[in-house]
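Comment thread on ticket #2218

A.B. wrote:
> Attaching the input chain for the structure job we discussed in standup.
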Amino acid sequence: DMDAEYFKKSWESCCFGGFLFGREAVRHMVKSGRGTLLFTGASASLRGRANFGAFNSAKAGLRTLAQAMAKEYGPKGIHVGHVVIDGAIAGDKIMRHLPELAKKLGEDGMINLEGIVESYVHLYRQSAGAWTFELDLRTSIEKW
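C.D. wrote:
> Ran it. Output below, let me know if you need it in another format.
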């Protein structure tokens, strides 16, 4: 019983927004013959969940867009990757808007920001001979 406008806005934000950002980024990177473009996904990129159809389909669309861009721009020296963030991120947003959930999950149940940054930097620094397309990040106790 989802509202069509809600579905459209979710797709525009996640998938179409990723397209616009990616298109503009690679326009500049192609000129230099190198660059890194990393898209952030979620577990919804890989599997659907009841009552999350808009988000699931938008994130799945972003993932396949990233795959297409990786295949198109990889040969031009641009590393395109997709990072699946599988869980809540320990940051200000969850603490402000969902404090009960943050308390329930606890520090060990949320992905820490430093770990996310380390992973993105690792992807950025990879040599073209061994590029990662997709990386899943989750806590050690996440049920998947």
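A.B. wrote:
> Thanks. Noting for the ticket: The chain has a mean pLDDT of 96.
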